[in-house]
Amino acid sequence: MRVALPLIICLFLLPAMASAKVEMSIGSSVGPVRNNSFNAFGNNVRKALMEQAITVGDIEREPGAYRRVSRVMQGQLLVTSFSCWSGVMQPPAPFSGERGNRLYFCLRIVGNGKRFCLSNLTFMLESQDAMGVLSSEGNYAGTNYSPHRVGIDYGPDRKRDTEDDVIFDKRQPGSVEVDEILYTGLGIGIHATAPRVTASKRAKAIEQLMNGLMGTHSNYDLKMTYTLLDDDNLTVLASASDTVRVFPQPDHVQIGPVPESPWPLFVGAGAGLGLILLVAGTRQMIRRYRHRVLSMTPLPDEELV
């Protein structure tokens, strides 16, 4: 009996160890395109994924802030070579240095005892856009870990956030096995061009292209599915999907905090003077916050960041 008891315990534990379930979660978000804001966005994405947070940072004041979304405007899928944010050309600071947006399908994978590697990750994007230019699929074979595809080895103690953890974020091969991956996500966007034409012609061309993507529908869906395979490239360790609905660009998009009302300035002033100042202030505000929608070409961007 003394010999049989340890054997019974081992037989009891083996199925639990073998059935360790790999967990995968997606938190989609609109973010900036490859600059200092993109690095800040990546940091906020990792924090949000680990804490299961809906928002990290101030969306109205920080280009690198994270907010989980299930719906976006068409203008939030535009990547440009000029100042743009959420489809608004020449946005106010601190967004004036941005070059458009992508929709990122941010991903976290936790092995729960099962080690895995980045190279065995695949993706499939299904799009219902009328032009059929956004759907794609691929894999991460041959890619590396990076600051936006972070692999974590829990070390000999098999515990996260301890001194023996090993972080892979400096172009180590994606074939290295890890216990966890935090990925800023595949960024989906449409490259915008900046032809040397008048702003009115550019805006008209953009409107036509956006209408082309939307077609006769009032919206369309983007569905991302990530799948993690075992080393045999057949066994599915985990899979997760997220769907984001794309809506037409509205006539007006507020960038940054809503401007404060000028009414407090007129308290105690005469009605006539107050009316004059209000009209002048309103005209100035309209000039200041007038934005134009930017141009784009329907070319999908599926670069692995």
Describe the structure.
With 305 residues, this protein is α+β, with helices and mostly antiparallel strands. The chain has one domain. The protein is built from four helices and 19 strands.
Features:
305 residues; alpha+beta; 7-stranded mixed sheet; 5-stranded mixed sheet; 30% strand; globular; disordered N terminus; disordered C terminus
Task: List the SSEs and their pairings.
Elements: H1 4-18, E1 23-31, H2 36-51, E2 55-56, E3 66-67, E4 71-73, E5 78-79, E6 84-85, E7 88-89, E8 102-110, E9 116-117, E10 121-127, E11 136-139, E12 149-153, E13 166-168, E14 177-178, E15 180-191, H3 199-214, E16 220-229, E17 236-247, H4 271-289, E18 292-293, E19 300-301
Parallel strand pairs: 4-17, 5-15
Antiparallel strand pairs: 1-8, 2-3, 6-7, 7-18, 8-15, 9-14, 10-11, 10-16, 12-13, 12-15, 15-19, 16-17
- Strands, count: 19
**Rg from Cα:** 24 Å
Which stretches of 5+ consecutive residues score pLDDT under 50?
1-18, 264-305
Compressed to H and E, one letter per element, the order equals: HEHEEEEEEEEEEEEEEHEEHEE
The percent range for helix content is 10-25%
The number of helices is: 4
Q: What's the end-to-end separation, in Å? A: 58 Å
Number of domains: 1
- Shape field: globular
- Structural class, by secondary structure, is alpha+beta
Major β-sheet annotation: 7 strands, mixed
Share of β-strand residues: 25-35%
What is the average of the pLDDT values? 81
